[in-house]
Amino acid sequence: MKDVLNRALDAVDQVLLGKHHAVKLAVACILARGHLLIEDLPGMGKTTLSQALARVMGMSYQRIQFTSDLLPGDILGTSVFDRNTAQFVFHPGPIFAELILADEINRATPKSQSALLEAMEEGQVTVDGSTRPLPNPFFVIATQNPVSQAGTFALPESQLDRFLMRLSLGYPSPAAEKSLLMGEDRNTRLDGIEAVLNRDNLQALQKAVPEITASPAIIDYILRLVNRTRESQVCAWGLSPRASLGLLVAARAWAMLEHRHYVIPEDVQAVLPAVVSHRLRASEDPAGHGGGGLAQWLLNEVEAV
Q: Which domains does the chain have, with CATH numbers?
């Protein structure tokens, strides 16, 4: 699978120029069976990344535009009465796809946001008293704009915690942007992407991630990182056990992308900012703007040995 993963990364890199580390984190998130939150300005390539990943991974794709008038039924689906059979027939919503782009998720009301909770955590949805399984694999990429807060509803901590990683793509380097301007546009590049993986390949890779060896020393390192947030007065609260589990599985997925069958401290350090930045708050920053800085503080505070 080494060549397959390399080809998948290269294919997405051809569309999202100069963002190899972010692309690699997104692929690691899929391999770890997590969900991804991308917080960035408009036009940075969030939608392009989601479409490229869906094509490369061979996953069915649906985009849900979150707005203030979006209802849970618009996401999950509804039951409609069929006169011919005199029965209610369920019409699945866009959530029944393998890769979902929840675009501008903080534009919708908390009621609509919560419609994703069961789907992201349980891999199923409950509509009209009936539980329906979602496709496997199932991956949610949610986007939100960190600047334009007018008319938005901030995601609650319970929903933020459902995302394994949070990324910010940021501006491209001058060289990457020059290549973008002088080459084909993103839509043309997307049209040229072919599936590198299929459902069976992806499921096999996801099943192999927990088998990546994490030594007792790596487990202790993760525990020291987590406990430091719980003991320090710098953090408003400490990381939860879900965060420590997420850090471990993300590090294993990163090790797989590095073509190793074991985790090293550098794997943990590579994924830690994306895994913990949206889960941490500084004591002096109740609005939650210091998560990224806290992640770097944590890496500096805790030694790997």
A: 2-201 (3.40.50.300), 212-301 (1.10.8.80)
